[in-house]
Each structure stands twice: as C-alpha cells, then as structure tokens.
Design brief:
This protein has 642 residues and is α+β, with helices and mostly antiparallel strands. 40% of the residues are buried.
C-alpha cells in the first residue's frame, strides 16, 4: 500500500500531571532486566504512575535492543529527520518496545508528534462502510479511471482503475475508492468511526505530554474535508494512536488501550470497533521485488516468501531468525537441503539473484500472484571487495551481473550498485554486482492466492525441477510462535491441522512438544497437499512438524525454530498446497483431487469450488478457479502484470 504523508507540526498537546518515580525505584523491563540507556532517557521523569519496587514495565528488552539497533543503523544510512518505532501486543495493549530518534526531542514523539496518516487511514473508512452494511465484500466501486472531479477539485489515483472491491481498493491504495466509500457514510457516522479507532483522543498511556491528535468536528468541515479524511488528509494522528488502531484490526476488531506497567493495565476496558467477521479477513502476501539489489536491504524478503494469517492467528512467518539469510530459514522449497544461497564466512550474507514478478490477477472473489524464482535459486550475487573474500569465495567463477536493469541504472558509475551508507554512488568499498552459479535449476515457479466466500482459503502452488535425477524436495513453512500440530482425528494422510497455543515462547531449547488439543471454537488451519499420498520415500514422512536447531546467534547462543515440512522425493515436483482456516468443531470440507485431470473439488454446505491446474509450456502450473458456473480467477501464461 502506498503511503503519502504530509508531515507537519501542530501545537496541540495534552499535559498530564507527572508523578515522578520514586528515587529508590529503577524501572525494569517485564523480565526484571535493566532498561537501555536510550529508553531510560525517554522515560525519565515522564511516567505518570508511581512505580513500586515490584512494578515492572511491559517493555521486552530483547525486542527493545533490536529496535534500537535498527534505528541506529537506519539513521546512519539515511539520515532521516525522524525515526519512531513502537511494538505492542494487540491482544493485551502492552507496549513491548519504544524507540525514537529525531533532530530535536523535547517531547516523546511516539505519543506527541502529529502527522497526516495518508493511506494508512484507508482501512478505517473501509471498515466503517462494511460494518454499517453499506458495502459487501463483493461490492464494486467505480474508481473512475484515476480521475474523479469533486467540489471543484480532481481526486486522483496513481493508476487508472475501474470497478474495484473494497479489498482491491485497499490493496491498490485507491484514493478515489476510499473517497467513494466515505461518501456512503453520513458525516456524523464517519466522525464517530474515526473516534472509535482512537483518533482525536489520548490513549491514556501513562506518559506526559500525550497529544490527542486533531480531528475537527463535522461542523467545521468544508465540502472536501470528508473526502480528504477518507485517504488520511485533513486530520492529524500520533504514532501511538495508529499503532493501537491497527492493533484492533489484528485483535479481531477489539480495540485495547495501551499499557506500559505490568501491574497497572489501562483502566479503560477494551471496546469493539468492528465485527469479528470484518476483522478476521484472511491475509496473505507474496513478496517479490525484482530490483531488490539495486539498493540496500537483505534480499530474502523479496524472493518469493509468503505469509499467511487467518482467524486472528499469524500461521506462517517469513523467517524465525534474526540476521540469517540462508534460504533454508525461509518459506521456500528446498532441493536436497538448498534453495536460495547460504551464507559464506567472509562473503555475502546469502545474497541471491533477483526473482521475476510475473504479475497478479485481482477479481471480486479471488486473487493470485506469481513469480519465477529460477534465477534466485540458480545464482549467487556478491558486492563484497576481494580483500575480504574467503578461499571458498575466491574459488568461485565470478562474472559481472548482466541484468539489463543493473546495466541501465548503474552503467558508467564506479560500482554498478548504489549503497546508501556510502558517500555517493561513485565511492564505496564495494565491487560491481557480480554473480556465480549456486544451485542451478531448470525451473522454479510459485503462485500464491486467496479465495473469498463463506469459507475463505488460501493456496500456494510451487513447480520445481533441478535435473533428470531424483531429488528430495521439501516445502518449508516457518511456524509462528505458539503454532504447532493439532490433534484432529480422522484426517487423510495428505492433510494436517495446525493450532495455536496463543503464546510466543522463547525458543531457547530443543524441547519436544506434544500436539495441541483444540477446544471448541479454537482457530485451526487445515493444510492439504493435493495429490500427495506419501513422500515417495518410505523412510521419509509426507508431513513433519518439528523444532529445528538453527545457527548460533552473535553471542554464541543456540537458536531453535518450529517448522512444517512437506517432503517429496522425485525428479520434479508440483506442490498444490491448500490453506483452509476453520474453527474446532466446524465440519471440514470434502476435498476430492482428480490427478489425471489435475482438478480439485472443494465442497462445503452452500459452497462448492473447483480448482483447475494446467501446466504451460514452461512447466508452470496455471490456476483457474470456478464456483459453480462462475469463474472466480484465471491465470494466463507469460507475464501478466496488472
């Protein structure tokens, strides 16, 4: 989502009567550890609650350390005027980390600085229109091909769009779509929804100088105020307000006020700001950025990773480890234990060649995006100077990366690569972007999609072939903290259920874990590997849910993580993985897969979907989904960017 923010200062500050901490009490984090010097300075004399020796703050020093390190490195690279980072638990409102950096810091900008939120405010107007029953999930709004005259002005989009659903309006960040959703609401109703999300009022966090932001009442609006507010202008919010508003979306529509002291939760009870049905939309992302190595940043977030959340649970995370870039720690398919490049001491941190984004299809009831990952698996990239190369790195056949994009942008410069922590693009201790073979593949394709309806679900389709020999292919799904195999009896051999314990344990030991016994109504995720009755190897199960021993961290401490693996031993593989959220006690769909026709049928009471898979000339599986006679979405061969 594109976010356009016009930043400005407003002199509106709510002053709290500060109660200074007792001189004999030193604030500690939630685990009894000392706070960082930066956070102590931020909080010094500004807490509006009296601490006792037994009080602890909600801060997690481990997360605080990570946040402060990110701020420090970002400031050194980009020299921004402000950096503000807040982390909170959306279910409890506990602030887990708070760090800021700016040119002048008289007040804590996390709670006092006001800004126009821009497109980040669009979910508010969408929620309001959906919850008021003025729109349905399949409703379409005409986005006027990017130009919408209104009140003597023209509302514009960055791209010409036609009819769009509410989800598509948010996904494509349409200003016109947001304005038209806002127009469906009466002025007073629109204003009430803004306040229900916590804007225009202090959150009550026990710190001095919290600002309520600025939301003018309808009596002060002009003809265009509501339209501008629909896409986050003509209003001012604070970072803490925006954090808690998005927390309500993550918390099944329940707004929880922030707390900073463990023994003193907010005195304000949680409030519902939307229906659980509106909040519990399935969320899935496919991350592919073909120009990821033209600037800074570690590449694995941009080479085919996916995320999936539903029913208030983040089931799959991108990676469980900090600053580990080997492909085996991400949601990719491994081939004999390798996917995209692994780290080399004295060399690049697992930098891979660029993936190719093949485009996406958005429709009212389904969407799908696709990527070609062949190059990202097959080639290793490097910009480190030879002076730091290890013997292993020196033995590799390096050559200049021939990407037309690299050549077009950086040809004629000294480095062929822009690094923002260097003085300029003609200076830096980096060589031109170079490549060497890593894990040559004939083809690697991935498609990720969502299907809406009374029973929504997601799917991940992976097609891979290395050569004509048998290989062990392993589909990896990195499980979020607390997610583990569920005890759901009677499932076929190609299905497995996941549950969540609702906690995020510290994975500091390789302890065995029992399957989770869900209670009625608990959120579950059914994982179905279509057409796979076994792994192809009698010694290897199809499904494995394990705690894995990872690499040691920078302090030499062992790290562990939880992972779902789907094994296949074959010359080539076509994973067709369905991700079907449901609640314990609900009937499961009937799933029938016709391998000869490459066709799956999913049947619930009141919903029957048919998924057709068709291999194109390049061995990429194209997806076509029907619901009865209605075509929901269809992929086409080749590049289909929208």
């Amino acid at each position: 989502m594109k976010v356009v923010q016009i930043l400005f200062y407003l002199l509106s500050v709510t002053v709290c009567l500060a109660v200074p901490e007792s001189a004999s009490v030193t604030p500690l984090d939630r685990n009894g550890s000392a706070l960082s010097q930066a956070l102590r300075e931020t909080l010094s004399g500004k807490l509006t609650i009296l601490l006792s020796p037994t009080n602890r703050l909600t801060i997690d020093s481990g997360l605080q350390k990570i946040v402060e390190a990110v701020i420090e490195s970002t400031a050194a690279k980009l020299h921004p005027r402000k950096i503000i980072v807040l982390l909170a638990n959306p279910k409890t409102g506990e602030i887990l980390a708070m760090a800021t950096q700016l040119e002048s810091q008289a007040f804590n900008p996390a709670i006092s600085w006001m800004y126009e939120p821009g497109s980040t405010a669009k979910p508010v107007v969408a929620t309001a229109a959906l919850s008021e029953g003025l729109l349905g999930s399949k409703s379409v709004i005409n986005c006027e091909n990017g130009q919408y005259p209104l009140g003597g002005k023209v509302i514009k989009d960055s791209k010409a769009l036609g009819n769009q659903t509410p989800v598509e309006i948010l996904a494509k960040s349409s200003n016109i779509g947001a304005v038209k959703m806002g127009q469906l609401l009466a002025d007073d109703d629109f204003n009430n929804w803004i306040h229900r999300f916590g804007f225009g009022e202090v959150t009550g966090i026990p710190l001095q100088y919290e600002s309520p932001g600025l939301i003018n009442p309808p009596a002060k609006w002009d003809a265009l105020t509501k339209a501008r507010m629909s896409f986050g202008q003509s209003m001012a919010v604070t970072p803490i307000q925006m954090l808690m508003a998005y927390g309500a979306i993550a918390n099944d529509g329940k707004y929880v006020f922030p707390s900073l002291v463990l023994a003193s939760p907010s005195q304000h009870p949680p409030r519902a700001v939307m229906t659980k049905k509106t909040a519990s939309l399935i969320k899935q992302a496919l991350d592919v950025r073909p120009n990821h190595y033209l600037g800074a940043g570690h590449p694995h977030a941009d080479a085919g990773m996916f995320h999936f959340s539903a029913l208030g649970v983040d089931w799959f995370m991108q990676s469980p480890l900090q600053q580990e870039y080997a492909g085996k720690y991400f949601n990719l398919v491994q081939v004999d234990g390798e996917s995209t490049p692994t780290n080399i001491p004295g060399g690049p941190n697992g930098y891979n060649g660029a993936a190719t984004y093949l485009g996406s299809k958005f429709a009212a009831s389904a969407s799908v995006g696709a990527a070609d990952l062949t190059y990202a698996y097959s080639w290793r990239w490097n910009t480190q100077p030879p002076q730091v190369w290890s013997d292993e790195l020196k033995a590799m056949p390096w050559e200049l990366e021939p990407s037309p994009m690299n050549m077009k942008i950086f040809a004629g410069t000294a480095r062929y690569k822009l690094r923002p922590w260097c003085a300029n693009y003609t200076y830096g201790n980096y060589i031109p972007t170079s490549r060497a073979p890593f894990n040559p593949m004939q083809y690697v394709f991935r498609s990720v999609g969502l299907v809406k309806g009374a029973h929504p679900y997601g799917f991940v389709v992976d097609d891979l072939k290395k050569d004509d020999a048998d290989h062990l292919y392993q589909w990896f799904g990195m499980l979020n903290g607390g997610v583990w195999q569920a005890d759901v009896p009677g499932l076929p051999s190609n299905m497995l259920a996941l549950a969540s314990s609702g906690v995020d344990p510290k994975m500091t030991e390789n302890a065995s874990k029992p399957t989770l016994a869900p209670k009625p109504g608990d959120p579950l995720l059914l994982v179905c590997a279509l057409g796979m009755d076994g792994s192809g190897d009698p010694q290897t199960p199809l499904f494995e849910v394990k705690r894995i021993e990872g690499p040691k961290d920078r302090n030499g401490k062992m790290q562990y993580f939880d992972r779902l693996t789907i094994n296949q031993k074959a010359k080539s593989v076509a994973y067709r993985i369905l991700l079907l959220p449901f609640k314990s006690g609900e009937p499961l769909p009937k799933i029938v897969y016709d391998a000869a026709r490459q066709r799956a049928a999913l049947q619930w009471d009141g919903q029957t979907d048919a998924i057709q898979f068709t291999a194109d000339a390049g061995n990429r599986s194209l997806v076509e989904i029907h619901r009865g006679a209605e075509l929901l979405v269809k992929q086409y061969s080749g590049n289909e960017k929208e």
